[in-house]
Structure prediction request, 119 residues.
Amino acid sequence: MTVWWGREHSDAQHHHRNDGGPSFVKGRARYTCTCSVRIEGLDPGTEIQTRVFERRDEDGKEVDGVTAEWFASQGATFISQTVVDSVNAGDRVRFKLIHYGTKTGLIKSGTAKALAWPL
Prediction:
């Protein structure tokens, strides 16, 4: 699932929409970001994948991004993925998470922090 961010801290360059949502950097830009989430309810050892990727505004197509793999631990699981990359004009950066367990995981909290340099 693509993670939606509930609170927005927007900037004058409109790298992300003012009303919240899944995108947190708008291209054309170079950027670095750290996406962190706290997940509860998964069995220890459950495989988790996270991905920072681009979504094209023009057609909604997802462009492959950096994928990382994790395993759930006892109690809450804390994930933090850092990426340094660039994003094309007309694309937006998002964060996606999927798990391969049988239980329903709950994202208890999360942040996406990014520094972007428009090109």
